[in-house]
C-alpha cells in the first residue's frame, strides 16, 4: 500500500510541477505582452488604435490575474 501512495504522490508532484512550470511560462509571455502594450500606449497613435490597445492592455491584466490565481491554487493543491 505504501508503494501505491508513493507512486500517486510522485505523479501528483510531477503534475503540480508541470502545471506550475506552464503557468510560469504563460506569466513570462504575459509580462512581455504587457511591456509592449505599455510602450505602444505611450506612443503617438491614432485614437481608434489607442482604444483597441487599452482593451488589449486590460485583457492582459485580467489574464495575468487569472494566472496568478491559478498559481496560488496549484501551490495550495499540490504542496
How would you portray this structure in words?
The protein has 79 residues and is mainly α. It is 92% helix and 0% strand. The chain has 2 helices and no strands. The protein has helices at residues 2-42, 47-78. Helix 1 packs antiparallel against helix 2. The longest helix has 41 residues, at 2-42.
From the alpha-carbon coordinates, what is the Rg to the nearest angstrom? Answer: 19 Å
SSE arrangement, N to C = HH
General form: elongated
Distance between the termini: 22 Å
Q: Uncertain runs with pLDDT below 50, 5 residues or more?
A: none
> What oligomeric assembly is this protein in?
single chain
Strand content: under 5%
> What's the overall average pLDDT, rounded?
88
Number of helices: 2
Structural class: mainly alpha
Count the beta strands: 0
The main sheet comes to:
none
Helix content: over 70%
Short characterization:
By secondary structure, this protein is an all-alpha fold. 92% of the residues lie in helices and 0% in strands.
